[in-house]
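Troubleshooting log. The previous structure file for this entry was overwritten by mistake, so regenerating from the original sequence record. Sequence copied from the archived sheet and checked twice against the printout by T.R.
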Amino acid sequence: MLSVIVPARDAEATLGRTLAALAAQQTTEAYEVIVVDDGSHDATAAIARAAPAPVTVVSQPAAGPAAARNLGARHARGDRLAFCDADVFPVPGWLAAGAAALARHELVQGRVAPDPDVPRGAFDRSLHIDGAVGLWETANLFVTRELFERVGGFQAWIAPRRGKALAEDVWFGHRALRAGARAGFSAEALAHHAVFSRHARGYVAERARLRFFPAMVARMPELRTAFLHRRVFLNPRTARFDLATAGALLATSPRARARWRAAGLLAALPYARAVQIASARAPGRPPGRLGVAAADVAADAAGAAALAWGSLRYRSIVL
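Regenerated output below.
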């Protein structure tokens, strides 16, 4: 049997659709769905109990996603566990594809794409997972019970004062790999992620969470080869931003010679081009391309500051 575990806190806006998608799975496998209500203040638990197919609902005081998933696993009857979030909508073949992948692996990352039925604004939030890059996101993750118990389940270790806990899934995946797990990726195990409307201020503010990436790399140095760009940079865009910043400082230095100032300006071109390309995604309404470009630059600056702070705080350089 497969056990699908869905942690949920104040998820009334999306949980109903998630459970409908789980009820519509096309599979010959026996499966159950367990919703863990993590201290919700809305109708999350009531929606789960009224789901179109039988759903087991368990509740706990707000303790975070790691504890919620562990509680769901303790109530699960299956020999294989499938984790998805309360704001993702698995396609009908999701569970069958995940089960097939678990026949070859013990840990499987499934693919996630933004909800194709919702037009995305420039600053809206959703999720892409296009491969196993070392983050092992539980928005769409399959694991054998034997491996789950051998690893010891999820461990909460980063809990910001504001916002959601994070990286318990990254840490789980790397503990599994260190334990010798056979891991893989299934593009066929697809789930669509909800698209949440967001303004530019929220888009920029979210970059503050990047301060925790150095903490992840300090605990899991494997991320330098599995996820980081050239072992130091978070991604190619942050590398271009850092190069542009260094180039701008050089170009405006009163002590720099003319040829070095020119070199500084050239160093900024890759980032400028990246901003231009990204701003082309702007819809034909405010804020328009200029507004998107300004928000992107502000977000990249906020992200660079967060990474610098985290690199110093956790003594692990990520730029």
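Residues 122 and 287 are 9 Å apart (CA to CA). Archived copy saved in two places this time.
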